[in-house]
């Protein structure tokens, strides 16, 4: 037994000796793959991605998308024209952030038969914004969102502006459903590619009444903020903040309804084509082709660029309301403050839509306008101020119903108001600080409160008069007592953003 143990011990020592004689492996461990640099593309979770300027990863969306649901814990980048085609659905959960690439003019197009399910909430809105760095974002950084449907237009197979090759929209199904856009912000979108060929923050072409659009903010767009080309989709709770061109633009036979809209104009820039809170046409020819542009807007608040008559504003501001080319758009229960331009109803055929019957094609009713113009007693126009142009006065006062106005000119206390100072804003119920005035490009109130709890705007709305009930009497319209977009509750709270320039996303 002792011999056996000695033998085992000798064998073990020999093995240990041999092992100790082997050369030690000092070669380094394999290096981890190098992290891509800013702007470099790589594969992330099986998808094409890119590193953003701040080191974050953004998954690239490009070309024709398959049916897919995004992940709110990840960031996304729209590269070039991105399409959701017929039969496909793009679902975007609350809290998702999607960037539009400037270099490729990122643009999201929901084609006829495609659907977008943009499901933001008040506490977690969906955000579409510029891919540029904080402090470098600007109007027109990316293309915006285009939704196309199969509802009627007054054009034959029209193609939507700003998309190439051409994409046709419209059809015969007024109940067409293109999905849902709810609690969503669209920032720095919309590009003028050439005259009369541009994308907007939100473009709606032939979108039907089965579609839901509510609680949407368009901010610092490079053209119009909300533009409807035909269709009859209904919308509620829209915010237009710092538009380049028009806030609300209706064309090609749009006949939907819009209630509760806010437009805030900054004084510095406006489009050379002439910027208006409202611009409405039947079509480019101004003919009587049906369906006629017969949209109905109620409870809109427009806070214009001028907070006093001394405020310099862009010379490209045009009208407060511009209705032309045989459009028959109704605007009711709304308030316009701080606009320098006139109410312009252009063309005898357009005026003809505003009759005094109980069933007018169109009506301007129960609105209040505060005109702010820079006219001196020595001006030739001082005795004939341009509060109205073309047939505006006839449509607003003679053929309108319940409309009221204040005029402020620097001519020495017109309408018993102080020279160059707004009428009693407290009396209206509007906080004058909510007008942009001299706050600077990124100086607007960071957490504004638009609620109107008192003042003349807290009452005066009408949904039941015989001449308006056919426009605003149906179940879509909330029968509120106040004029303008707000009563005692500020529905912009939590989900909107009024200083996005340096916002970290």
Looking at the structure, what is the overall shape?
Answer: globular
Q: How many beta-strand elements?
A: 30
Mean pLDDT: 89
**What is the subunit organization of this protein?**
single chain
Low-confidence stretches: 1-5, 10-23, 375-384, 411-419
Percent of sequence in beta strands? 25-35%
Radius of gyration: 29 Å
Total helical elements? 5
Structural class: mainly beta
Description:
This protein has 505 residues and is mainly beta. The chain has one domain (57-472). The chain is 8% helix and 30% strand. The chain has helices spanning 2-21, 348-351, 392-398, 425-428, 469-472; strands at 41-44, 47-51, 57-65, 68-69, 75-84, 89-93, 97-100, 107-110, 115-119, 126-130, 144-148, 179-187, 192-194, 197-198, 202-205, 212-219, 226-229, 235-241, 248-251, 257-264, 278-280, 296-303, 321-323, 330-332, 335-339, 343-345, 364-365, 368-373, 388-390, 404-409. The chain has a 28-stranded mixed beta sheet that branches. A two-stranded antiparallel sheet has the order 13-14. It is globular, with a radius of gyration of 29 Å. The termini are far apart. 52% of the residues are buried. Residues 1-5, 10-23, 375-384 and 411-419 have low confidence and may be disordered.
Can you give me a brief rundown of this structure?
It contains five helices and 30 strands. By secondary structure, the chain is mostly beta strands.
Key traits:
single chain; 505 residues; two-stranded antiparallel sheet; 8% helix; disordered N terminus
Topology readout:
Blueprint lengths: L1 H20 L19 E4 L2 E5 L5 E9 L2 E2 L5 E10 L4 E5 L3 E4 L6 E4 L4 E5 L6 E5 L13 E5 L30 E9 L4 E3 L2 E2 L3 E4 L6 E8 L6 E4 L5 E7 L6 E4 L5 E8 L13 E3 L15 E8 L17 E3 L6 E3 L2 E5 L3 E3 L2 H4 L12 E2 L2 E6 L14 E3 L1 H7 L5 E6 L15 H4 L40 H4 L33
Parallel strand pairs: 3-5, 4-6, 5-7, 5-8, 6-9, 7-10, 8-11, 9-12, 10-12, 11-15, 12-16, 15-17, 16-18, 17-19, 18-20, 19-21, 20-22, 21-23, 22-24, 22-25, 23-26, 24-27, 25-28, 26-29, 28-30
Antiparallel strand pairs: 1-2, 2-3, 13-14
């Amino acid at each position: 037994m002792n011999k056996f143990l000695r033998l085992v011990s000798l064998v073990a020592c020999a093995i240990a000796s041999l092992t100790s004689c082997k050369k030690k492996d000092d070669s380094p461990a394999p290096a981890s793959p190098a992290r891509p640099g800013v702007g470099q593309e790589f594969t992330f979770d099986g998808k094409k991605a890119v590193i953003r300027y701040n080191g974050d990863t953004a998954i690239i969306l490009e070309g024709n998308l398959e049916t897919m649901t995004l992940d709110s814990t990840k960031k996304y980048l729209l590269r070039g024209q991105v399409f959701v085609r017929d039969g496909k659905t793009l679902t975007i959960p609350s809290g998702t952030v999607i960037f539009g690439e400037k270099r490729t003019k990122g643009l999201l197009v929901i084609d006829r038969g495609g659907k977008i399910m943009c499901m933001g909430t008040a506490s977690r809105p969906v955000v579409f914004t510029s891919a540029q760095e904080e402090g470098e974002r600007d109007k027109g950084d990316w293309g915006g969102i285009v939704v196309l449907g199969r509802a009627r237009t007054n054009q034959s197979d029209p193609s939507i502006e700003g998309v190439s090759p051409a994409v046709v929209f419209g059809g015969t199904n007024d109940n067409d459903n293109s999905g849902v856009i709810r609690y969503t912000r669209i920032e720095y979108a919309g590009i003028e590619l050439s005259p009369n060929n541009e994308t907007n923050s939100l473009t709606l072409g032939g979108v039907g009444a089965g579609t839901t659009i509510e609680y949407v903010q368009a901010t610092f767009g490079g053209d119009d903020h909300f533009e409807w080309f035909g269709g009859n989709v209904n919308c509620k709770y829209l915010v237009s903040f710092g538009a380049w061109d028009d806030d609300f633009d209706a064309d090609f036979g749009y006949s939907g309804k819009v209630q509760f809209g806010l437009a805030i104009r900054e004084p510095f820039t406006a489009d050379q084509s002439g910027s208006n809170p409202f611009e409405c046409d039947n079509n480019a020819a101004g003919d009587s082709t049906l369906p006629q542009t017969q949209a109905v807007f109620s409870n809109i608040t427009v806070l214009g660029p001028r907070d006093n008559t001394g405020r310099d504003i862009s010379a490209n501001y045009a009208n407060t309301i511009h209705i032309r080319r045989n459009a028959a758009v109704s605007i009711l229960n709304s308030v316009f403050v701080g606009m320098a331009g006139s109410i312009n109803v252009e063309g005898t055929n357009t005026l003809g839509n505003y009759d005094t019957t109980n069933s007018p094609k169109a009506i301007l009713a129960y609105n209040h306008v505060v005109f702010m113009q820079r006219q001196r007693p020595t001006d030739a126009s001082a005795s004939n101020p341009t509060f109205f142009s073309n047939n505006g006065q006839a449509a607003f006062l003679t053929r309108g119903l319940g409309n009221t106005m204040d005029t402020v000119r620097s001519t020495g206390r017109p309408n018993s108001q102080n020279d160059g100072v707004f009428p009693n804003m407290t009396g209206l119920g509007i906080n004058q600080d909510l007008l942009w005035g001299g706050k600077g490009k990124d100086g607007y109130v960071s957490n504004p409160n638009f609620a109107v709890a008192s003042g003349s705007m807290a009452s005066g709305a009408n949904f039941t008069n015989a001449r308006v009930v056919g426009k605003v009497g149906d179940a879509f319209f909330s029968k509120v007592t106040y004029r303008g977009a707000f009563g005692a509750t500020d529905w912009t709270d939590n989900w909107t953003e009024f200083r996005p320039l340096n916002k970290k996303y």
